[in-house]
Amino acid sequence: MEQPQHNEAAAQQNAQGDNAATATVTNRRTDDKYAPSFFHGKSSEDAIEYAAYLQRYAAYKHLTDGENLELLPVLLRDAASDFYDTLGDEQKSSWPNFKAAFLERFGRSTVQRWKDTNALSTEVQANDKSADDFVSRLTRLAKHLPSLDPSTLQCAVTRGLKAHIRQHIR
Question: What is the domain partition of the chain in residue ranges?
Answer without folding.
Answer: 44-107, 110-166
